[in-house]
Design brief:
The protein has 11 helices and no strands. The chain is mainly alpha-helical. The chain has one domain: Hypothetical protein, domain 2 (Endonuclease III, domain 1), CATH 1.10.340. The radius of gyration is 16 Å and the shape is globular. The chain starts with 8 loop residues before the first helix and ends with a helix.
């Protein structure tokens, strides 16, 4: 698996090789560009020396916020997002033995079971969980029964609705176009 989300070789390599980094990137993917969110785990690794669930969960909270604030910032909301990342890592450490991949590999789970597991994680609501499940199915090799249906509409082949569909600059442009159109439609419905 070789992900191409951030445009930064080191950040993409970390996402490709470290399931926790990918999970953290998804958590950070709100109110910032996707590339910024998914580059966050590499910044955390550089600044704290680790992308380990236990190490991050146990990291001094003030020092962790400081790592988020360094330029360039990990996220536009360093305090709240640093706290969310630590809560996520605590859950992965305690419930999954520090192995983020166990969320989608332990016990040969179906797509609906992985979706339920993701939704129990701090910071993962219905939409974020579905997008991450689609990312797992489309690019990480997860093949649990019914994953496309559980991740709908993000699991649909050729949907270009989320980070799950980004494999190149061209696919990123298509995802951006679709997101822009969805926002415009939502705004029109409100008006």
């Amino acid at each position: 698996m070789a992900l191409h989300i951030t445009g930064d070789a080191d950040a993409d390599a970390l996402l490709s090789n470290d399931p926790l980094a990918l999970l953290i990137g998804m958590l950070l993917d709100q109110q910032v560009a996707m590339e910024t969110a998914f580059a966050g785990p590499e910044k955390i690794r550089q600044r704290t020396g680790s992308v380990s669930a236990t190490a991050i969960a146990d990291y001094d909270p003030e020092a962790f916020v400081d790592a988020f604030r360094q330029t360039p910032a990990v996220h536009r909301y360093p305090g709240s997002m640093a706290e969310r990342v630590q809560k996520l890592c605590r859950e992965v450490a305690d419930a999954w033995g520090g192995d983020a991949a166990a969320i989608w590999t332990s016990g040969d789970p179906s797509g609906s079971e992985v979706l339920a597991r993701l939704k129990r994680l701090p910071g993962f609501g219905e939409q974020k969980a579905k997008i991450f499940l689609a990312l797992l199915g489309k690019q990480v090799g997860f093949a649990g029964a019914g994953w496309r249906e559980a991740a709908a509409p993000y699991g649909e082949d050729g949907s270009f609705l989320s980070v799950a569909d980004i494999t190149s600059p061209e696919s990123l442009a298509r995802v951006r176009e679709n997101k822009k159109a969805m926002k415009a439609a939502a705004k029109a419905r409100k008006a």
